[in-house]
Amino acid sequence: MSHTNFLWAPPATPSLAVHGSTQRLPVHRLFFVGRNYHAHAMEMVGKPVDKANERAFYFTKSPHSLVESGATIAYPPSTANYHYEMELVVVLGKGGFQVKAADAHELIYGYACGLDMTRRDLQLIARDKGRPWDLGKDVEDGSVISPVVPMPGVVIEQGTIALQVNGQPKQSSNVNLLIWNIREIIEDLSTYYHLQPGDVIYTGTPEGVGPVVAGDKITGQMEGVGEIALTIERAD
């Protein structure tokens, strides 16, 4: 067997805990759906999404930005407006290309709760200048996720989703309000990418996003999936 002679040790493969199993799920890519609830689109850009004339849009983050629920992370550098976004996360167990919506369930392995942590000030600067969102979105320790609950072939179509900061309610909605539902997201993403096992899709956040500061404790719940928690500490 040949061995690659690296200059230094490569990073470990990002992976997720799986509920009820000692095995871990290797992560391939992280996809995020932007503005996938009308009320969140209203709070961000002042108007709902015209689904009849628009397609879903996406951004990506490095899988190395993943941290597990229950972690304590440092307030990130170069921001004064760090936001939470609670999301239902779909984890794929099979690959596919140009998948029909009716067949999208065949790719699903399970679900998790997710937090898309965002340097909102940097994101808005980039948005207003027509630049990529990377500095605002692809934040170290900025993709928080709970253990994956295996639900092969199951398409979640409704369920309450909520988030609290220091016990105070901030977000409360239902995933039946997704503009592009899970079948439609998988179908559309698969026109751009050959989807693979271990692809992870954050499906979008409802309204109520807002800032956190050092010392804050974030908690969230997704009906039928589980809970998530994150503590913010002082910057390094």
UniProtKB/TrEMBL annotation:
It holds the Pfam family FAA_hydrolase. Keywords: Hydrolase, Metal-binding. One of its GO terms (molecular function) is hydrolase activity. This is Fumarylacetoacetate hydrolase family protein. It comes from the Bacteria. Residues 31-232 form the Fumarylacetoacetase-like C-terminal domain. The lineage of its organism: Bacteria, Pseudomonadati, Pseudomonadota, Betaproteobacteria, Burkholderiales. InterPro entries: Fumarylacetoacetase-like_C (IPR011234), Fumarylacetoacetase_C_sf (IPR036663). Gene3D superfamilies: Fumarylacetoacetase-like, C-terminal domain (3.90.850.10).
